[in-house]
Amino acid sequence: MTTVWISRFLCLWKIFLLFQATDASHEEVLQIHYPSVTLSAQKNGYLSAQTEGGGDIHINSKGNNTAVYFDNINLLQLIEKVMSLPPVWMNHTDTGYSGNFEGGKHFSIPLNVMTPGTKNLSFEIVAGSLPPGVFLDIPNRRISGIAPDEDAEYIFTVRAKTGYGKFADAVFRFDSYELNQCEENPCHNNGVCNNTNEGEGYTCNCTGYYGERHCDTGVSNKKTIPDAQLSAYLSRDQSLATEARLNSNSSSGWCGENGNAWIQLDLGSVGRVFAVTTQAGSSDKFLKSFTLSCSKDGTKFSDVMGTNTTAAYVFPSGTGAITQPLPDPATCRFVRLHPSTYKVHPCLKLELHGCVP
């Protein structure tokens, strides 16, 4: 009996010596410094783990930031990278033919890629080149731009690459063909169209007081001056500043309450104003004369002055459309029309002519 108890004591003593916490040293097999636990072999020793019957050994990782390191290598990331798959191009033909596009027209080609196991994906051109005006729209995963206005074929290779460096290449090919862009009469107000092989395939030489891309007039074109850039002060009843557009369907245009009212146009950026057109919406109430003022910042306004005078230039107006040049072109962003004389109420439609970058 005595021998059995001695054996049990020696066994418990060995276990105690194995797991007791002592001063840190290289001889220590178990170190507990909360919240960390370090298990190491003694000098010239080794760590081993095995299961009965040859079963698997698992290292359980919990939480998004858990890592398992071996010799400063994150094993979980290494396994994830090894097991990751390259991108897969979907619905892509062997020849990569993507279509035949009209020169000078906008087009887009989708980059249909499936990325197993990762959302991080980048694109680059690895062979050939994109024609001028065409670019890789990476956020929207497409090739976009304006087709060159010429008869030509373009071939290039796009590489899709994951964050782990796995990649797949795809060849793209598309054709463009030249058009006579001027046949569609893109230049308005007697502008002269010139065919080119650059950009949208044409330019406009504008006449008179017109400018911009298509010799358009500013206020009537909502793309040039959106509704939010028209405002007014002391409007009559429910009259809206947007009703002042020359092509609006309003029966009377915009109406101010009296001579203290004004209507303002924000060109969006500083531009050049050459002329103004006014017209009455009805014959019973309309604008007879007005002045203009300009500002670059929307705070400090200066009157449009007459030639060789210190007084504001007074523009006549009436029931019919009247286009009048400014005495000198005005450089500004904000333009205000101030009624001078009117019948009943200053009601009008208007248009500005000029160039806005």
UniProtKB/TrEMBL annotation:
InterPro entries: EGF (IPR000742), FA58C (IPR000421), Galactose-bd-like_sf (IPR008979). The keyword Disulfide bond applies. Transmembrane segments: none annotated. It comes from Magallana gigas (Pacific oyster). It comes from the Eukaryota. Keywords: Disulfide bond, EGF-like domain. SUPFAM superfamilies: EGF/Laminin, Galactose-binding domain-like. Disulfide bonds join C187-C204, C206-C215. CDD domains: EGF. The keyword Nucleus does not apply. This is EGF-like repeat and discoidin I-like domain-containing protein 3. Pfam families: F5_F8_type_C, He_PIG. SMART domains: FA58C.
